[in-house]
Amino acid sequence: MAEAIATFVPDGATVAMGTALEPLVPFAAGHEMIRQGRRDLELVGPISDALFDQLIGAGCVRRVTAAWVGNVSEGLGHCYRRACEQGVPRALEVHDHSNFSVSLALWAAAWNVPSLPTRSLLGSDILRTNPNLSVGFGLVHVGAVRPDVAVIHTQRADAMGRAHVWGPLGITEEAGLAADKVIVTCEELVDSGVILSDPNRILLPETKVVAVVHEPGGAHPSPVQGHFKRDHAFYRDYAEQSRTEDGFASWLKRWVLDVPDRASYLKGIDVDALRIRHHRYSATADYGDE
Amino acid sequence: MATNSYTPQELMVAVASREIHDGDLVFVGMRLPILAYAVALETHAPNARGLFEVGLMRDRPADAFLGTMGDPPNVAGAVWATRMSNTMALMAQGKVDLGFIGGAEVDRFGNLNTSYVGDPSQPRVKLPGSGGGADIAILSRRWVTLMNHEKRRLVDRVSFITSPGHGDGSRGWRERNGLLGGGPVAIITTLCMFRFPDGGGEAYVDTVHPGHTIEEVREQTGWVVKVGVDMGETPPPTQAELAAIRKRQ
C-alpha cells in the first residue's frame, strides 16, 4: 500500500475514492495518504462516508468535488465544517454537485467530451457555486472531471489488476474509466483463472490499473458484500470524537498516525464480530463456447 | 386499531409510509424513509418497489436493520444491483413516482437547503450537501420531506436552494424553469403534516399530530402558517404500522 500511494498519488493529485457510496470505501488507502503527509489533493466522489472528512481534517486536501461530505449514519462532517467555516486546518475549495451530476462529470471525462447535459440541477443554487456547471438551451452542462487516480476497493482481484466487484457500484465504473490511473485494493488476491472464469464481472480494463494491493479489511468501517458488515459503532465514535479539533487529533493519532499499516489497525477492531457468516453464493454462469 | 403509545419518529414513519401508493416506484433514501418503505410494503402497498441511488432496486424490504442503503442486507435479495447512473436514468424518464429527501432547512414553498447557512463563500454552517436530494427534487414525479419541527429549520425563505421545491411559489414555477417532476407534495414534521396546492405554491397545514396544537405549529414555524380548509388531526400509527417499524429497530 505504502509503495502504491507513494508512487501514484503525488501531492496535488486529483483522487477519486468512495465511488460505491457507502460500501467499499478505501479507508486503508486514504489513511496511507494521511501518514505520508500528502498535501493539496483534490478529492472527487459522490457521498464520501467519513473518509473525505478525515483527509480534510488531516490537512491533505485543497479542493473537494462531491455531492455530499459527512458521515452517513451520523450526519455532519465536523472536519469538513471546520475547514469551510473557519479555514481549520486549512481553507477548502468546494465544488458542489448532486450525485447524478458528479456521475455525469466523470462520464464526460470517460468519454472525452467537455461536458454532458442533464435536466437535473435546474432551479438549484448549486449552479451558482460550482464554476463547472453552466446552463444553456434549457439544460445544465456538467463539465468533465478527470481524476489523476481512482482508488477502488474490491472483493477480489488478480495480480494483473482484473477485479471482480459485486453489489451496487455507485459511480465506480465512470470514476475508473475517467481516471488516468486506477489503484485496486482487494479483500482476496486470486489466480487469474478465478477472475477470467467470469469476465462480465470484471470492473475495469486491466490497462487502467497501475497497482493491485492485497489489503484485507481495507474498507473498514464500510461494508464489503460477502465479507464485512458496516461497523456502525465505529462511525458513531468517529463522529463524537471529531466534534472538536483536539478530539479529532487524538482519533487520528490512535487510528492512523500511530498505526504503521492496515494489519496493525485491524488488531484494534473486533473483526470477527463484523465478518459475514451467512454466505449466499450466486449460481454459476456458463461461458461455454463450443 | 390505533394505539396511544408511540414516538414522534414512529408517527412520522407511519405518515410517510401512507404517501407510498401500491405499485409506486419509490426513490427511498436514508433513515426514516427506509422504514417507511418497509411499513408500506407490509401494510397497504405490497407491490411498491424501492430504488436506491447506491445502485439497487428492491421489491421487498431488507430482512435486517439498515444503517445505510448500502448495507449488505439491502443487497441480498435485490431485484437489481447496478450503477447509480442507471437508477438516475429511470428518474430522468419520469418513472420514479415518489422520492424522499431529508433536509436541514425547508421554506414555505418547499425548497430545501442542505448546503450552506449564511453566505456560501463564508458560511456560518457548512451542511453536507445535496447527495441525491437535488436530483430527486427535480426529476421524481412527486416528493416528500421529513424534518424535526423547529423554527430554525422551517424558515420563510431558505438562503440557499439545494433541492428546489416550488421556487418562488408562483404557479407553474417548476414548469417555466424546466424542472421535470411535480415537486414536493408534503412536509412531514414532528408536529404536523403540510401539503401543497396542485400546481405549486405555498405549504398549508393539512393535519396536526395527536397531542399537538395548531398554535404550537404557528409558534415553531418561521412563516405565517396557512391552514387547510379541512384541517384535522393526523391519524395515529396503527398496530400493523408500529409492528412493521419495531421489528426493524
Short synopsis of the structure:
Chain A is of the alpha/beta class and 290 residues long. Chain A contains 12 helices and 13 strands. In chain A, the strands form 3 sheets. In chain A, strands 1, 2, 3, 6, 10, 11, 12 and 13 form an 8-stranded mixed sheet that branches. Chain A has a 3-stranded antiparallel sheet with strand order 7-9-8. Chain A has a two-stranded antiparallel ribbon with strand order 4-5.
Helix and strand layout, with pairings?
The complex is a heterodimer of chains A (290) and B (249).
Chain A: H1 2-8, E1 14-16, H2 27-35, E2 41-45, H3 51-57, E3 61-66, E4 70-71, E5 75-76, H4 78-86, E6 93-96, H5 99-110, E7 115-118, H6 126-129, E8 133-136, E9 139-143, E10 149-157, E11 163-164, H7 172-178, E12 181-189, H8 192-196, E13 209-214, H9 232-241, H10 245-257, H11 262-266, H12 271-274
Helix pairs in contact in A: 2-3, 3-4, 5-7
Chain B: H1 8-17, E1 25-27, H2 32-42, E2 49-52, E3 56-58, H3 72-75, E4 80-81, H4 84-92, E5 98-102, E6 105-107, E7 112-113, E8 116-117, E9 125-126, H5 133-139, E10 142-147, E11 154-155, H6 173-176, E12 184-189, E13 192-195, E14 204-208, H7 214-219, E15 226-233, H8 239-246
Parallel strand pairs in B: 1-2, 1-5, 5-10, 6-11, 10-12, 14-15
Antiparallel strand pairs in B: 2-3, 3-4, 6-7, 8-9, 12-13, 13-14
Helix pairs in contact in B: 1-2, 2-8
* Count of structural domains of chain B: 1
Summed over residues and divided by their number, the pLDDT of chain B gives a mean of 95
**Principal-axes shape call of chain B:** globular
Biggest sheet details of chain B = 10 strands, mixed
Could you tell me the radius of gyration of chain A in angstroms? 19 Å
Oligomer: heterodimer
Class from secondary-structure proportions of chain B: alpha/beta
The overall pLDDT of chain A, averaged over residues, is: 98
Question: Could you please say which CATH topology of chain A applies here?
Answer: Glutaconate Coenzyme A-transferase
Series of H and E elements of chain B: HEHEEHEHEEEEEHEEHEEEHEH
Helix content of chain B: 10-25%
CATH superfamily of chain A: Glutaconate Coenzyme A-transferase
Name the structural class of chain A: alpha/beta
User: Which CATH C-level class of chain B is it?
Assistant: Alpha Beta
Instruction: Please trace the helix and strand order of chain A, writing H or E for each element.
Output: HEHEHEEEHEHEHEEEEHEHEHHHH
CATH-derived architecture of chain B: 3-Layer(aba) Sandwich
> How far do the termini of chain A sit from each other?
42 Å
Q: Using DSSP, what is the number of strands of chain B?
A: 15
Total of DSSP H or I helical runs spanning 4+ residues of chain A: 12
